[in-house]
Amino acid sequence: MADSSLESNFLGEQPSEINVDPSTKCHDSALIEAGESHDKTDIFQDGDATTPDDTGLSNQLTEDWKADSGLLDNGGVGTFSEEADLDNEVAAALDKRRQPLMELVSSEEGYVRRLRMVKEFYIPIVSSARAPTTPSSADAATLPGGNSSVNNLPLRESSTTLPPPPTVPDDLAARWRILWGNWIQLCDWHSAFLEKLSSFVTSEPDKIPKLFIDSRSRLRSIYSKYCENHRKAALIAEQYRDYFEELRLYLNDKEDVVSYLMQPVQRIMRYQLPMAEIVKYTQRARVPELTLWKRALDIMKEIPKDTQLILEPPFSVTSAAPFLKRRI
């Protein structure tokens, strides 16, 4: 009988189902579920338990390393890198700003040199009975560029005094003050201005805009006065062109009188050119004084507009251009 049962199982018949007490089955399932729940709770809530997975641990370690290194995940660009780029940008802008700053000073030096040339060698021809003399070494040293400021005058080793200049026509002598207007005032003011400008340009360039802002009223006053007189002066210079040409040759000067008379008109209009470049690079360098530079630039755009309105044809800047090209 037993052999018959084994044969039946071997041929594929299933054994009878084992009877299990239902209450026992439910109890065992509850224990299993409780155990799984306890394991999960230990994993996610126990502070000493293992992290959920290796990927999370790796990500956390990476973030910690970035924080310790001063790096942030900003599209692959770190804080150090951004700061280095910013420092390089600021340094480059400040370096490029030096050129227009130096141009501002060097052009002022050239302007003051011409103002002094007229003050010391042209104006005294009528105001003094003696002939103009070449400046002493001490005087020359005070001029912008030293001796180079008077290198267009005759060099006389045997004497510091020039021969008598051409005789000034009486009617021209009577109008000599009209010819030069407030030239001496311009010369004295710009000489002092140049001294301040030169003292700031290297060590404290961002004090320069305040010079222009504080000088607004003064600049407007002296240039308005000069431009009001300019048309009369240009007419006188044209009327006595032959005499002034003779005087130019006598002084061995490269500039003629008409050119000199145009210098203040041109100068007040040219400050804005280097200043616009300075403002551009000041902004790129994020310099705090940017607002002052912009204000100074606005002033140096505003004053030329006022003076241009004062000038009357045919002696505006444009119409006087042909006279500026006349040379021998």
TrEMBL record:
InterPro entries: DBL_dom_sf (IPR035899), DH_dom (IPR000219), RhoGEF_Guanine_NuclExch_SF (IPR051336). One of its GO terms (cellular component) is cytoplasm. Residues 24-43 have a biased composition (Basic and acidic residues). It comes from the Eukaryota. Keywords: Guanine-nucleotide releasing factor. Residues 130-144 have a biased composition (Low complexity). Pfam families: RhoGEF. GO terms for biological process: axon guidance. Residues 96-310 form the DH domain. Residues 1-60, 130-166 are annotated as: Disordered. One of its GO terms (molecular function) is guanyl-nucleotide exchange factor activity. This is DH domain-containing protein. It comes from Opisthorchis viverrini. The lineage of its organism: Eukaryota, Metazoa, Spiralia, Lophotrochozoa, Platyhelminthes.
